[in-house]
Structures are given as structure tokens and as C-alpha cells.
Design a protein that fits this description.
four-stranded antiparallel β-sheet, alpha+beta, 98 residues
Length: 98
């Protein structure tokens, strides 16, 4: 019994005298944020870009499928538009009246 009391008091004193932990202001975090783009580094095909545009427009004509931006002409509600599709991500970048 005395042995347990002695151990408890020694542990209690060591915790009580340890004092509060202090925060360090010189901590430096080093991390990277990587934002992926679909296609895994390869461009989508011209036909795939045309199918993406065809979801929203009619009478699609291919203007250019080179580089990272593909251009198409499409119609919606009787009006003509120039549609630019990102060749890597496969999303519509911009739509302008043509």
C-alpha cells in the first residue's frame, strides 16, 4: 500500500512540475498542392471534343484541333457560336457569338 502511494506521489510531482507546454512559432510546414487535369497528360481526341460540344450545341463543325485548345462552331437556338474546348481537360473553356 505504501509502495503504491509512493509511486503515485512521485508520478504526480513529475507531472505537476513539468509545467505547461509552450507553442513554438518557428514551425515550418512544407507541402505541395497538385491539381490534376483529366487526360493524364495526353490530349483528348478531336472526336471526343466534338461529342462534348454536341451535348450543348447542334450542327457542330470542327475549326481546329491542334495544340491544347480545340475550336468548333456550333448552333443553339438559331445562333452561331465559337466554342473552345480544353484539349487536356476536355471541358468547354469559352463560348462566343460567331
Amino acid at each position: 500500500m505504501i509502495k503504491k502511494l509512493l509511486i503515485a506521489s512521485v508520478l504526480g510531482l513529475s507531472v505537476a512540475t513539468a509545467g505547461p507546454l509552450t507553442a513554438r512559432a518557428d514551425v515550418d510546414f512544407d507541402f505541395k498542392v497538385i491539381i490534376g487535369v483529366g487526360g493524364y497528360g495526353k490530349n483528348i481526341s478531336c472526336a471526343t471534343g466534338k461529342r462534348i460540344v454536341a451535348r450543348h450545341f447542334n450542327k457542330i463543325k470542327v475549326v481546329e484541333c491542334a495544340g491544347t485548345t480545340y475550336r468548333y462552331i456550333g448552333h443553339r437556338k438559331g445562333k452561331r457560336f465559337m466554342i473552345r474546348v480544353d484539349g487536356r481537360g476536355g471541358y468547354i473553356k469559352s463560348v462566343d457569338r460567331y
